[in-house]
UniProtKB/TrEMBL annotation:
Residues 126-306 form the Malic enzyme N-terminal domain. It comes from Crotalaria pallida. It comes from the Eukaryota. This is Malic enzyme. InterPro entries: Aminoacid_DH-like_N_sf, Malic_enzyme_CS, Malic_N_dom, Malic_N_dom_sf, Malic_NAD-bd, Malic_OxRdtase, NAD(P)-bd_dom_sf.
Amino acid sequence: MAMFSKHLRLSSSFLQRLRLHVTAGNPGRHKLSSRSFTTIEGHRPSIVHKRSLDILHDPWFNKGTAFSMTERDRLDLRGLLPPNVMSTDLQIERFMVDLKRLEVQARDGPSDPNALAKWRILNRLHDRNEVMYYKVLIANIEEYAPVVYTPTVGLVCQNYSGLFRRPRGMYFSAEDRGEMMSMVYNWPADQVDMIVVTDGSRILGLGDLGVQGIGIAIGKLDLYVAAAGINPQRVLPVMIDVGTNNEKLLKDSLYLGLQQHRLDGDDYLSVVDEFMEAVFIRWPNVIVQFEDFQSKWAFKLLQRYRNTYRMFNDDVQGTAGVAIAGLLGAVRAQGRSMIDFPKQKIVVAGAGSAGIGVLNAARKTMARMLGNNEEAFKSAKSQFWVVDAQGLITEGRENIDPDALPFARNLKEMGRQGLREGASLVEVVKQVKPDVLLGLSAVGGLFSKEVLEALKGSTSTRPAIFAMSNPTKNAECTPEEAFSILGENIIFASGSPFSDVDLGNGNVGHCNQGNNMYLFPGIGLGTLLSGARIVSDGMLQAAAECLAAYMSEEEVLQGIIFPSISRIRDITKEVAAAVIKEAVEEDLAEGYHGMDPRELRKLNQDEIAEYVKNHMWSPEYPTLVYKKD
């Protein structure tokens, strides 16, 4: 896309977006503001083609007792609802009285029965009134994100066949080959902005859950709506059912999916290929997020589609981005500049799709800081020691995973460090004395007392422990274990939520939740609003660096490297703005609706942030107007 003159006259469509503001305290004066933008997600009437009970049974349009008397007359609802017209605040108060009967927050992991009970109550609200559901979720995001997403969503997926009541999303199975192009037109929405798709093969750290894995796609899209303001009528959860290798599900008569072993090889690829072609033909501008595909396919599918379609893999790229943000934050917490990141010694436990994704992203980040040349990449590689189920990965390993090969250590060099092929995690930590111990293993308790004791030898002034595996029971260690063994002068982050640790004498050990939800909503929203045709490495890097810089110096020095989930909409706005800016700089942006790429180029940072904010959907009841088909 050619650069254009900065003196080019403003287009008429852009001028329409400039607004006159009345100067505060002086209504007689008007001034032309900096560029402001009318929101596409603004308040305007919605045309509906149904009335009476049909409206009350449609969660997209149902307002329950909040229908005004005028609307009740217009939509034939008078007499079908109690006479008292309630505000949304009163509706929520009534709902919360029911929900708050479960006083214990779902913070103790999937074993906590209150978590699943809360999920059931929220899900019933979702089934009958979407606006109210998202209003409750956004207002209480810190409390309910762990219920609709990790860790509770893992328990939901494990029990989904029994919990299923009402279809939400679409199912494309191996039995549908040759039919997917017509199937996509069964979905009623003419515009879909975001799809989250899974094949259920590796749900969190719980393994193959087959068709029940659609729960993770539903949960992710709830966060796209709550955090990024994606319109809930334009999201689509998808399950690609190619069978399951879970023998328990294959023998379960109540299982809802195909009871056959998983397709493999070209048969598997043909199903996913047909799905991708179908959804992009119907919705050419949709963004597809791949979620919880087993490592065997995660990288292969990412490489297969990323240069052709607007897609990304959250486990590989989202997890990597959050980890990079945390690693850069850990450098800041040591009182150093982020540019010192290439000096960090990092031991990584886990070489699955998430682990390799983090390693690749971290190496690229280090190399970019060192000059982005061959020598820089070689130097960056030397900062990582990768340990999997067989121990330290070296060049001496037989049948080494090709994705892990770039991080295999030289045997002679390891010999000089007192290490060998297959050395245990404890041995590696003792000899390397790392600045960072990063867990992406899905093995609960892997960072044992012996491993944490070994980390006492770290050469860092403030070592960092990242126990990133989900759900809670798969975390490599708890913050209590880390702080009790290593003391207060550490940085701790986890994938699932834990409470801060009381260290006594007024001191607090901060538990940072390094959750993907800090990034994937902003990556999706920024890609959507920029109109970028692909999701580039630069856009992902911009998102990670934006998150890393979000915290103030004071917060970081206190050991707080990730913000509170309560700030998620503001975080997402900033991340989306960073993604848009990078897409424009890389000449990938093609614009969105009324905003063409030339106009995007003219916006400064504040104007991009305003543009993003004004396109974030908020849960407010629209005025409904009936129109006969």
